[in-house]
What we know:
By secondary structure, the protein is mainly alpha-helical. It has one domain. Helix content is about 75%, strand content about 0%. Helix 2 (about 30-45) packs parallel to helix 4 (about 80-100), helix 4 runs parallel beside helix 6 (about 115-130) and helix 5 (about 100-115) packs antiparallel against helix 6. The radius of gyration is 14 Å and the shape is globular. The chain starts with 10 loop residues before the first helix and ends with a helix.
Amino acid sequence: PSLGILIVRHLKRLERVILGYLEVSDGPGEEARLAMLQTLQCTIEHAWPRMPCRLPVLLKALLRLLWDVHSERGPTPEPVRAALLQGATQCLILLDRCCQGRVKVLLAGLHSSCEETRLQECFRKVQEST
């Protein structure tokens, strides 16, 4: 956050680190994943002009995270799962804002075809965001 827009210089490398951490569960507390979601939120907020070209990669990673958190049957406590889903949803909302609503368009089909209640709730929050 202290870098502000200068974060753009390091965006490719930072993106690789963030996505790498989001792919792998790090135990019941999920400290790394939660921290990476916060880092991604700050990155989107500060480097928003560069987000449209990063949308495909980030959207895929966030959707994979949502599905993994929903479907994993590990020792992760419910409040941690909820925090991960909320963090990923917030990232999707931020991405949608800086990509002129493209996330909503891309998620529209998923929202109607997804039968998982928790994921539907995440998609609904994105669709209803302004």
